[in-house]
From TrEMBL:
Keyword terms of this UniProt record: Coiled coil, DNA-binding
Species, as recorded: Brevibacillus agri
Helix-turn-helix domain ranges (all copies): 70-115
Any GO molecular function: DNA binding
Keyword Ribosomal protein in record: no
Positions in coiled-coil regions: 48-75
Organism ancestry: Bacteria, Bacillati, Bacillota, Bacilli, Bacillales
Protein name: DNA-binding protein
Keyword Cytoplasm: no
Amino acid sequence: MKEPMTRAVLIVSLVMLVGAWMIADATRSISAYADSATHNTAEIATALTSFDNRLNDLNQSVHSVEKQIMNADEVAVYLGITDQVLSKLLEDKQLPAIQINGIYRFSKRAIDEWVYEKSKNKASYQNW
């Protein structure tokens, strides 16, 4: 249970560390240009553009980290079902879930495995 949270904290920490390094690197580059008698505005703009591109790439990689634990609303959207169908599945203990302080949480992996198993059995929940 703690592994996805630990992984997320590690990824966020790594992103912050890389971002701080990139800011420091850009600052040193800009300072070097400013101290140089031959500095050039175009070179500074290029360095800033490169820095901005690297930050954008880093931001996209952070957002691409897939969420491993979902709440009820997210699972309903993920499965393409209504809240009523989700409630019925939970009531019948058909869906893998845990309750934390009375709030259902769902492992994406467990949900994917549940869907796979149900699809092998050709289960149908259309009547709900």
